[in-house]
Write a structure and sequence with these properties.
alpha/beta, 8-stranded parallel β-barrel, 8 strands, globular, binds 2-phosphoglycolic acid
Length: about 220
């Protein structure tokens, strides 16, 4: 049975108090599961300290990482600064590419810093060519990376891609970079099962539906 990943991406949301309430009420019911499922919660950087007591119920990730080492890079969070707190880092989300001008070259530098620090990179792509460039720029990515495939029209729109289409694109990507591929874009507890059943999809990335702990739990229960 394939290993599955369920990633919650909070994006730029939640005060400390809201994050604390979420952390206290999030109790994923994964008892009795037969499937190997890794839940990855990606809050904002400053929330990470609230998660000291999650005790292995789920893994933690960060939403972005500096392309530089630690040092005189004001405002940047380096991989070395967070490597004791997180197992994963998202890199190159389409919102980073769109609003912060991130290029494939910058994404590849971030991937290198993550790999150097022993943090598993989850690179977001919206088309297979981005995976192709990533593979060319950082061949080592395929040793421990994951890809989150998110078609632009589906992000935050309430209209997901069809599982069949997403699987087809994931198949193309998998031929280029043979790593676990997740689908993201308007995933909810109602449609998640269709995606995780597909051959080339090893899980899902969840934005909006991860902000409410009960909705996120319902989505996880649907997979379990
Ligand atoms: P969404 O976001 O689930 O709100 O569509 C997904 C994402 O951008 O990771």
């Amino acid at each position: 049975m394939k290993k599955l990943f369920i990633l919650g991406n909070w994006k730029s949301n939640k005060t400390m108090e809201e994050a604390r309430v979420w952390e206290q009420s999030f109790m994923p019911d994964i008892a009795g599961r037969t499937q190997d499922i890794t839940i990855i919660v990606c809050p904002a950087f400053h929330h990470l300290t609230l998660f000291a007591n999650h005790k292995g119920r789920y893994a933690l990730g960060i939403q972005d990482i500096s392309p530089y080492e630690s040092g005189a890079f004001t405002g940047a969070i380096s991989a070395a600064m967070v490597k004791d707190m997180v197992t994963y880092t998202m890199i190159g989300h389409s919102e980073r590419r769109k609003y912060f001008g991130e290029t494939d070259e910058l994404v590849s530098e971030k991937v290198k810093r993550a790999l150097d620090a022993g943090i598993r990179p989850i690179v977001c792509v919206s088309e297979p060519v981005q995976a192709e460039r990533l593979h060319a720029l950082v061949p080592a990515f395929s040793e421990s990376g994951l890809i989150l495939y998110e078609p632009l029209f589906a992000i935050g729109s309430g209209t997901s891609d069809s599982p069949e289409n997403a699987n087809k694109t994931a198949g193309f990507i998998h031929d280029i970079v043979p790593v676990p591929i997740l689908y993201g874009g308007s995933v909810t507890h109602e449609n998640v099962q269709g995606f995780v059943r597909e051959e080339y999809l090893s899980g899902v990335g969840v934005g909006g539906a991860s902000l409410d702990p009960k909705k996120f739990q319902a989505l996880i229960s649907a997979v379990v």
